[in-house]
Design goal:
Blueprint lengths: L2 E8 L3 H12 L5 E3 L13 E2 L9 E2 H14 L3 E3 L3 E5 L5 E5 L4 E9 L3 E3 L5 H5 L5 E2 L2 H4 L7 E5 L3 H10 L5 E5 L9 H9 L3 E4 L2 E9 L4 E9 L5 E5 L2 E4 L3 E3 L30 E3 L11 H22 L1
Parallel strand pairs: 1-2, 1-8, 2-5, 8-19, 10-17, 11-12, 11-17, 12-13
Antiparallel strand pairs: 3-4, 6-7, 7-8, 9-18, 14-15, 15-16
Helix pairs in contact: 1-2, 1-7, 5-6
The chain binds NADPH dihydro-nicotinamide-adenine-dinucleotide phosphate.
NADPH dihydro-nicotinamide-adenine-dinucleotide phosphate (NDP) binds next to α5.
């Protein structure tokens, strides 16, 4: 027997739990699939100081727990499963979890988010949340008057390097080639900024430091042309080498842009399929903030609710 819901939400970051709160308060009894990382990307950050309503700051996991608690209080239910397949060829939509159980839904809210790309170093992984971050807007503030290193050569890295100059004593940008991928305008601003040093043709080989003791203390880089290695002391290490939207499940059924993000109709969360809505980072390559994801999740719940009333 499959289980049917009016609203199923895939994903449990701010863009999944916010529509859950709204849909639950509208008595739609939404079901949330939390996925492999319950609470989403924010659970990998420590302190969040820019989410409105928490003047003292709040940790990522605590914020997500509060959002979940709020959704459950109004009648949402949550399952700690991932979705492995969706069938959007007929209505109600069918989805299958990682135990191959089938669920059907009148409306589907896709909140699967995007994942920051990391270099894939063991030391980087070990120090995530202890000085390694993939979000300068979230974590730059913690490195006031400290040395900061950032890796990447696209517009995100350039923009974040400039942003980090507001805090850091120095900002060193590591790029693996001898020219940036990002726009000329931004490249020039970075090259001419007095606080920024660029290390060209260089790759990060290791992030130095110990998680609970020192946090990040530096990075070891290697120049790919000379093969020389160098240790750069720093307290914060930012990775800005791109994101990938989690859209694999939908690539054959929904319209994606040329970088893989779900295309939504202007000013709404509507996708090209009736009753299927997308919100948060999975459809937003530009802002990627907890508060924008939450706001866009709110829009998705309202869109879903309106769509359901139109069908009655
Ligand atoms: P991009 O894919 O544009 O750039 C990724 C950068 O990371 C590249 O310089 C790439 O190097 C480097 N990189 C990738 N993998 C590795 C690795 N394993 N080790 C070291 N370096 C690596 O991603 P962005 O996030 O910068 O930008 C995504 C899109 O968003 C772009 O279209 C960008 O223009 C846009 N954007 C626009 C902004 C704006 O207009 N204000 C702000 C931010 C983003 P290489 O160059 O050698 O491939």
């Amino acid at each position: 027997m499959n289980e049917h819901r009016k609203v199923i939400i895939i994903g449990s970051g701010p863009s999944g739990l916010t529509p859950a709160i709204y849909a639950a308060r509208a008595e739609l009894e939404p079901l949330i699939f939390e996925g492999s990382q319950p609470g989403g990307q924010l659970t990998t950050t420590t302190e969040i100081e820019n989410f409105p309503g928490f003047p003292e700051g709040i940790t990522g996991p605590e914020l997500m727990d509060k959002m979940r608690e709020q959704a459950l209080r109004f009648g949402a239910s949550t399952l700690y499963h991932s979705i492995s397949e969706v069938d959007l060829s007929s209505h109600p939509y069918k989805i299958y979890d990682d135990e191959d159980k089938e669920y059907t839904a009148d409306t589907l809210i896709i909140s699967t988010g995007a994942s920051a790309r990391y270099l894939g170093l063991e030391s980087e992984n070990k120090l995530k949340g202890y000085g390694v971050s993939a979000c300068a807007t979230c974590d730059g503030f913690f490195y006031k008057d400290k040395d900061i290193v950032i890796v990447g050569g696209g517009d995100t890295a350039l923009e974040e390097a400039l942003y980090l100059t507001h805090f850091g004593k120095t900002v060193t940008l590591i790029h693996r080639r001898d020219e940036f991928r990002g726009s000329v305008f931004m490249s020039e601003k970075v090259k001419n900024h007095e606080k920024i040093t660029v290390k060209w043709d260089s790759v990060v080989e290791e992030v130095l430091g110990e998680p609970d003791l020192t946090g990040v203390t530096g990075v070891r880089i290697r120049n790919v042309k000379t093969n020389k290695t160098e240790d750069l002391p720093c307290a914060g290490f930012f990775v800005a080498i791109g994101h990938h939207p989690n859209t694999d499940l939908f690539k054959d059924t929904l319209e994606l842009d040329n970088t893989g993000y779900i295309v939504t109709q202007s000013k709404s969360s509507k996708t090209g399929l009736c009753g299927v809505f997308a919100c948060g980072d999975v459809q937003d390559p530009a802002y990627r903030q907890a508060v924008t994801a939450a706001g866009s999740g709110c829009k998705a719940a309202i869109d879903a609710e309106r769509w359901l009333s139109e069908q009655e």
